[in-house]
Structure formats: C-alpha cells, structure tokens
C-alpha cells in the first residue's frame, strides 16, 4: 500500500464551524498544510443549510452570550466593513411570555445575566405588543380548546434588537473563499471520512499496535478515497461526531435530534401580510423572529419570499439519536398539521387555514448543557455540540479551536474579548447550563 | 386489542441495581404492584454476572465514597447479620504506584478526601511491598523493553482493607428472594422490553397523540409479550439505557464499553501460588485485588479456583458504543497476549508463560463523571451509569431511586447516612468528577 499523503491538519466537516476553523487555522498558521474534507459535493450543504439561519445573542449563560455576541458582531463586520453581503437583517428576536413565565426565576436570571454582559434587550407589555402586532391573540379567556392545549396567555414580550437572520451559504462562502486564497491544499468534497486512524506514539511497528501499554493518538483519517495522515485532526462534524469519536473511545457528549421547518407564504393573504409586516420592532418594518409562549413553536420572517419559516423546538418526546438519521431530511406534514398549526393559529389567527408550501428537516447537535464542546485531546481538536446555534457561534468556536491548536491559554474573539481556551473542554469545562434553548 | 395490564411500577432490567430497586420499592411501598422484567431467563445474568465482582470504597469523589461505603457495609450486614452467604471476602484493594503518580495532586487529593470521609487506607513503601509480595518486580532498571512499554516503577502501595470480592449472583438472589416474598406480582424473565410508551396527560384520545402541545409522560412499556401500563417505569438497564431513553428524547448521558476478564490458574505453578498467597494484607493470607502502575492492568485473587481473574481498564483507544454490542460477550485471546500479558509478566514475572484457561466479556456503563445517574423525570425513574461499579453502588442507588419514587428530598443509605435524592440527577447534579476509575 502506498504511503498515505500527510497534512499538518485535516478538518473533517465543511459546515459553518468547519470552514470558519479552516479560515482561522490557516490565517494564524500560514505554513501549515490544511486539508478540508466533506462528504457532500460542496461546503455548508448539510445542517448549516437546513437551519433557520437566525442569530441571537440573547442567551442565559454568559458563555453562550460571549460566543454569540462576538460571532454576530463579526457577521456584521463581514457585511458592512468587508463588503461581503451575507443578507444579514436585524429583524430582532421576540419571546412572547406569560406573566408566570416572565416572573419565573429562570427568566429573571436570564435578563439579569444579559444586563451583566451588556446584551441589549427590551421588555414590551401586553398592550404595546397588541398595538404593534394587531394579529396577535394575547389571551384565551373562555377558549376551552386553548385550555386543553395548555396554551399560556401573552403578558410580556422580551425583545432583542441585535438579533437577526442571514443567508448561511453566504457566510460559509466567505470563510471558504478566504481559506482557499491562503491554502495550497485543495479542499476535498464528496469524500466520506469513515474513521479515525489510531497510531502508536512512538510507533514500534508491531502487529496490532497500538497496544494498551503504548502511548497513542489519532494520526489521520480513513476515507472513501483512501487514508490520509495528519498531526492534528479537527472534527467539525456536528451530528455525526459519535460515528468518529466513539470508535476511538472518546465520548463526544453530543446527541442528534431532528428539527423541521415549514414554509408558509403570506403573499395575497392579508392577515398573514399584516403579521409579517408588523411595525415598530426594526428598520425593516417586519415582525421579529418570534417564539410563542407554549409548545416551543416559533417562526422567522422571510422577507425575500414574503412569508414565514415555522418550526418547533420540541424537547421531551422527540427522539435523540446517536448520529443523524436519513429520516431527518424530510419535513412531516402531519407534524405541522397536528402539532404546530393548532398552536400557531391560536396565537396568530391569521395563520388559520395556512398550509406549508415547502418543508425540510435537519439535525440539531445537542450538548448536555446546550453549550458547545471545543477541546483538544490525543491528536484531535473537536468543535461540536452548538445545540442548534452553530451559525451564531461558529466564529467564536473556530477561534477557540485555533487557540487550542496553537497551545494558547486564551482565545481572542472578535472585538478583542478573551476566553479561556479550555473553558469548553470535556475535562475542564467552566460553563453555566444554558436555559434558553429553542 | 385488549387493554394492557397495568402496574404501579414496572422495573426494566433485573441486574443487581434492578433487583435492589425492586426490594426497596416494594419494602417501602408495600401496597404498590411492582413488575420486574428482564430479557434474560433469570436475574443478574447480564453484566452483573460478567463483572470482576470486587467492591471498594476507595474512590476520590465523596459521592462515590458514600455510595460504595454504605453499599459494602450493607453487603457485610447481609452476610454476617442476615446469615445470607455472599462469599464476601475482604481481600483488600492494592494500587501499585510510582513515586511520580503517588505525589501527583490527583492521588494526594484522593487520599485527603478518603481521610475526610473516614475511609481507611494504608500506604506501603517499596521495601514493605517487596517483602510482602516477593514475586513483585518493583523496578525496571536497564530493562529497555520496559522502557519502550512506558512501565512505571513501583514505589508505593495504596491499600484499603475494607474492600473485597464477592459472588454477585448470591447478592442478586438475596434482593430478588426478599422482593418475591413481599410482591404479589411474579417477575417476568425472558421478556424483552422493546420500547417505552409515551402517553398524553391527560389523554384526549386524538390520533397520533401526544402532540407537542400536550403534557406527556412515559406510561408503560412495549415488550415481546405485549404492552404493559405503569404509573412509573424504573429503568435499571445499564448499557442498554440509550435504546429506551433516546426514542423518548431523554439523553441518558451513558455509554457502553467492553471489558474482558481472563482466568489464569495458579495451581501447580509455584511462582503463581506464591503471588496468590502473598501474606500480610488480610486474614485470608492472599494478595489483594491489585492494580498495576501502568496500562490499566489489574487482577483479583480467586481463592476457590486458586487463580486470578486478570483484566485491563483501557481508556482512550477502546471503543464506546451507543448500547452494548454482541461482540462484548467474548474474551479476545490476542488482547491478553499482546496488551495485558506483556505488562503483567513484567511486574509479576511469575505470570511468565501463563495462558488464560477461560475468558469472558461484558459491558461497563459509563457516565461522563464516573458517578451514577439516578433521576426522576416524566414518569421515569432511571438508575444507570455506575461506570463499572454497579455491584458496589447498587444498594445506595436503589435507596435513592426509592426515595425519588416516594418524593423524599433525601435518601437514607445503610447505616443512616443521608444523601440528597436529586444529587445524582441530570438537572441538579451535585457531584465531583471521579478520578479513580479502573
């Protein structure tokens, strides 16, 4: 067998975290050869493309606040200063909350922590909301159906103006193109990484090595196009992490869960157009990304196609999987009809009789505390588990991965803020549990 | 379809944690109907039976110290006061350590925490060890092979006299027989639980319920013998936890890993008999359960068959799995020959030319912090993830599961010590990371 080709770094997975990692690793280690591999025909085509592509800095943990706030500011920087249009639009994020939930310790702590981190937000009361969104139903007095459905009324709106939506393929393109201008190694697309190679360190060339008494590390990857060697393998594989990490005995701590988005068009439907163009929240004159008080139902405005992308963050009752399943690819119309629609049309009667014109599915890569895992161990650097918010954390995660590669104790995030490089690690994790996941 | 039979509690998995849970739940809730189910033809036949069946209270986390110390004291109580012979023998546990490791912060903290918890231990120096175990090789001066193998020399022995070995099938029998005398429900063996049933709460009898806007909980199990309903399903499934919990959207946080044991006979082999009957450690006049300084190799004495059970706690490099695999069942002779034997025979030259007469495999159920997970959520009580020490934690884990069932804030462990009932939960976990896992 020919000696496998060798690189300094192999990056597995060209989603948004992978291409951002490629960019920072090459930028800060210009002499290193970096091979970027993805099993799909191009970058950013898996869950990055399937995402609702909304970004928010309104998290409850100071870690997620830092990761997202700096990433979003870098997104703004790309668009406004580097003149690379990402179609980033500051629609804002709006949580609709019952009084009970608003007064709950967890929401009060969330707001307090945002204050501490200078994350701007605004509280709207019911009457203001009602006047800004006339199509919003704020209470269900006497509605027995709503009571059976456990629907909480709307008493408050928690709004963040620095949040928004973007086109993730354009963000992927930015990182990838910049990486390609710096790198001598052509990225490989359509190549599936089937396993990690374990090597003895030092090698003794014994049959079956590495044995338990040998030092060992990951020394490369096996792919559908043959084996490649590397000093460091960077894993930005999202919902496929376990497939590569479990066989070498590393617990990724992540699990995959299906999410779906349903496209509802508003054009020619006055009640939906009225909801979509609710004024007063932003310069776009549109409704923000909105999270309903109950059942995890949410939607984002989609101004280009004059409509909404509707989703649902179901927790208990929606299966986890070891790795992403093929069944994640499709939206299920019965899910919209029986689970999402009944809730949506109660809060926003304008959605009555709405039917999605399109739908798709993708995977969330959950960590147990809903904060990403970025760590270096045994020849691997892994950056995974963004828990549904990879696009809004990618820039920070990639900078941390690069700091770990260079052996720095701290990563410098966009705007100069520092973060301990091992704060997101498996062993020295220093994070609060994130309570605001959608 | 006939209306499924209903129980107050269904316990899935009749390993040692399952039968202990059945015992405490029935004892403290005498009016409740409790069905115990296992897919094997009898209790305790899966990983409980495959274990090295050694018990120790020498852990580094105060949580594991409390769980094991009270469980071992209950084991002694069963044997000496309840006159139920468990073949529990206090062989002791002996860690052989290099000076570097002994002086390391983690070992110093381990000893300090044992002192704080009144866990008795003793430190032997090299010369004492040498005189008590003449067959022990304490250094490898000039041995190039040993250097290539990264073998650390023996400078210290850390010994715990309150540790030992037992027959786990007898412990399982104790709990099961006691449970059966109290219960009106006959345990079901040879019945495989294939899934958990999710029910809407309250039920609305809608097709496809529970929908996302309904409250839901686990309301029973699907089995190869039909469906059964229950108010509470207790999961003591060890390495199969993900198979049942992932589909309902609960991350068990556990992973399975294969472990193997190899039986080496000492009879008629003087050097091995000399090692086996090393005197001075215990009243049995035998060598303790012994952990070598390098590569995770360990053995336990087996006095009845005059020999050793030899194993290896390999960490990085040994695959994790989502659930236990069929390939766990067998010992691999090449693993003994290439990985274990070279290490064992360096420290104990008496093992030279030894070949195992028997071997078997089983599964460890790891949690990320090597401390069990016991929690109540959505109709489930789960007690899993003992991380290779289920037998020595089962009694305490079962008492905590019962306290959670009864809604108590604290569990009373054997000897009257209390533990917060939610200390081992997913959400309110209050534990130190355990550093002394074998």
Helical content class of chain A:
25-40%
Structural class of chain A: alpha+beta
The CATH superfamily of the largest domain in chain A appears as FAD/NAD(P)-binding domain
Task: Measure the end-to-end span of chain A.
Answer: 49 Å
**CATH fold group of the largest domain in chain A:** FAD/NAD(P)-binding domain
Shape of chain A: elongated
Specify the number of helices of chain A: 12
- Give the number of DSSP strands of chain A: 21
- Multimeric state: homodimer
| Pair of chains with the largest interface and how many residues each contributes | A-B, 52 and 52 residues
Q: Give average pLDDT of chain A, whole number.
A: 96
- Provide the β-strand percentage band of chain A: 25-35%
Number of domains of chain A: 2
Q: What characterizes the major β-sheet of chain A?
A: 9 strands, mixed
Question: Can you give keywords for this protein?
Answer:
homodimer, 438 residues, alpha+beta, FAD/NAD(P)-binding domain, D-Amino Acid Oxidase, Chain A, domain 2, 2 domains, 9-stranded mixed β-sheet, 8-stranded mixed β-sheet, 21 strands, 27% helix
């Amino acid at each position: 067998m020919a000696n496998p080709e060798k690189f300094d770094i192999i990056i597995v997975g060209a989603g948004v975290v992978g291409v951002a990692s490629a960019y920072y690793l090459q930028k800060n280690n210009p002499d290193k050869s970096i091979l970027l591999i993805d099993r799909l025909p191009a970058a950013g085509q898996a869950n990055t493309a399937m995402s609702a592509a909304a970004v928010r800095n309104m998290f409850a943990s100071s870690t997620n606040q830092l990761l997202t706030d700096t990433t979003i500011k870098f997104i703004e920087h790309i668009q406004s200063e580097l003149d690379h249009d990402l179609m980033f639009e500051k629609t804002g994020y709006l949580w609709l909350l019952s009084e009970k939930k608003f007064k709950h310790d967890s929401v009060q702590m969330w707001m307090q922590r945002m204050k501490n981190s200078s994350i701007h937000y605004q509280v709207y009361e019911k009457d203001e909301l009602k006047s800004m969104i006339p199509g919003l139903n704020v209470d269900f007095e006497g509605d027995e159906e709503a009571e059976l459905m456990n629907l909480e009324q709307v008493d408050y709106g928690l709004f963040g103006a620095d949040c928004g939506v973007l086109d993730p393929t354009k963000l992927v393109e930015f990182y990838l193109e910049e990486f390609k201008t710096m790198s001598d190694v052509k990225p490989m697309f359509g190549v599936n990484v089937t396993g990690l190679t374990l090597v003895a360190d030092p090698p003794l060339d014994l049959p079956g090595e590495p044995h338990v008494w040998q030092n060992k590390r990951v020394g490369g990857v096996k792919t559908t196009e043959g084996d490649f060697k590397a000093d460091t393998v960077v894993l930005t594989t999202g919902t496929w992490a376990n497939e590569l990490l479990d066989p070498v005995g590393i617990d990724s701590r992540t699990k995959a869960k299906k999410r779906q988005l349903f496209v509802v068009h508003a054009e020619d439907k006055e009640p939906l157009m009225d909801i979509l163009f609710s004024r007063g929240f932003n310069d776009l004159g549109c409704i923000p990304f909105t999270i309903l008080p109950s059942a995890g139902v949410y939607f984002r405005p989609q101004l280009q196609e004059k409509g909404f992308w509707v989703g649902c963050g179901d927790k208990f009752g929606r299966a986890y999987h070891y790795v992403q399943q093929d069944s994640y690819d499709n939206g299920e119309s019965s899910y919209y009809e029986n689970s999402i629609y009944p809730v949506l049309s109660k809060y926003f009667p304008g959605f009555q009789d709405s039917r999605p014109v399109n739908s798709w599915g993708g995977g969330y890569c959950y960590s147990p505390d809903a904060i990403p895992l970025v760590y270096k161990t045994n020849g691997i650097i892994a950056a995974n588990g963004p828990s549904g918010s990879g696009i809004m954390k990618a820039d920070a995660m990639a900078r941390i991965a690069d700091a770990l590669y260079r052996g720095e104790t701290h990563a410098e995030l966009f705007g100069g803020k520092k973060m301990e490089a091992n704060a997101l690690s498996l062993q020295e994790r220093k994070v609060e549990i994130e309570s605001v996941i959608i």
